[in-house]
């Protein structure tokens, strides 16, 4: 059975859970690629089209919306950001796993557009530890920390929509667990072969 096609992995989790660091470790594997988003904002100094983002005009972005070519998209400060479906599929067909680091709402949009996507939720060991991590950054006011904690609780409510969860108590262990999930998914039996298997089982039973 061929496993040449890659898989799309969506990694989500509240701010402070370390999902960005986990993604960075996962992307050290040459078989994994980060999903490049499309945006209408202007490129900043040093940014390259197709590396940080696909930089397009407002008109081109809207055209892609009309064509249904986004797994998810959103408006942020008057600019569009989205995940182009055709670019993801192109990488998957080349046998590459595509990693998408996105918030919960975006993750659910992706699952709706591409049900075969594998959703992984990164959890903190506890809300107390999450608070400690957020406060430890030293870059956010207490009001911002409280807002992030409230948002985290709201996001965690959607964990039932995800396929897996990983508690990031120890970074190394969390990364290893995500890698194990990805390896297991590579050996998942495709749904389309199950009717064939059942057919042979029935023949064996003489049905």
Features:
globular; four-stranded mixed beta sheet; alpha/beta; 8 helices; 207 residues; Rossmann fold
* Average pLDDT level: 90
| Fraction in beta strands | 15-25%
How many beta-strand runs? Answer: 9
What is the CATH C-level name of the domain at 8-35 and 96-204?
A: Alpha Beta
- CATH domain fold name of the domain at 8-35 and 96-204: Rossmann fold
Q: Write down the secondary-structure element order.
A: EHEEEHEEHEHEHHEHH
Which bin fits the share of residues in helices? Answer: 40-55%
Looking at CATH, the homologous superfamily of the domain at 8-35 and 96-204 is P-loop containing nucleotide triphosphate hydrolases
What is the global morphology?
globular
Q: Largest sheet, described in full?
A: 5 strands, parallel
Question: Any overview of this molecule?
Answer:
It is a single chain. The protein has 207 residues and is of the alpha/beta class. It has a domain at 8-35 and 96-204: Rossmann fold (3-Layer(aba) Sandwich), CATH 3.40.50.300. The chain has helices spanning 19-26, 58-66, 85-93, 104-113, 127-136, 142-156, 171-186, 194-204; strands at residues 8-12, 32-34, 37-39, 53-55, 70-76, 79-84, 97-101, 118-123, 164-167. Strands 2-7-1-8-9 form a 5-stranded parallel beta sheet, with helices on both faces. Strands 4-3-6-5 form a 4-stranded mixed beta sheet. Helix 1 (19-26) packs across helix 7 and helix 5 (127-136) packs antiparallel against helix 6. The longest helix is centred in the last third of the chain and has 16 residues, at 171-186.
């Amino acid at each position: 059975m061929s496993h040449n096609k890659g898989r799309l992995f969506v990694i989500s989790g509240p701010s402070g859970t370390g999902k960005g660091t986990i993604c960075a470790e996962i992307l050290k594997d040459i078989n994994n690629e980060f999903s490049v988003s499309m945006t209408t904002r202007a490129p900043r100094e040093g940014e390259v089209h197709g590396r940080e983002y696909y930089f397009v005009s407002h008109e081109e972005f809207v055209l892609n919306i009309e064509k249904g070519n986004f797994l998810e998209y959103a408006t942020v400060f008057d600019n569009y950001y989205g995940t182009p479906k055709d670019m993801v599929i192109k990488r998957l067909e080349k046998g590459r796993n595509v990693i998408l680091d996105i918030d919960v709402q975006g993750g659910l949009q992706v699952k709706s557009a591409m049900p075969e996507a594998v959703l992984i939720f990164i959890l903190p060991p506890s809300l107390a530890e999450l608070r400690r991590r957020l406060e430890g950054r030293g870059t956010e006011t207490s009001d911002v920390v409280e807002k992030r904690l409230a948002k985290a609780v709201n996001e965690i409510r959607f964990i039932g929509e995800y396929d897996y969860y990983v508690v990031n108590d120890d970074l190394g262990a969390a990364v290893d667990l995500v890698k194990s999930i990805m390896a297991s998914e590579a050996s998942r039996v495709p749904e389309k072969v199950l009717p064939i298997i059942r057919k042979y089982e029935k023949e064996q039973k003489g049905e």
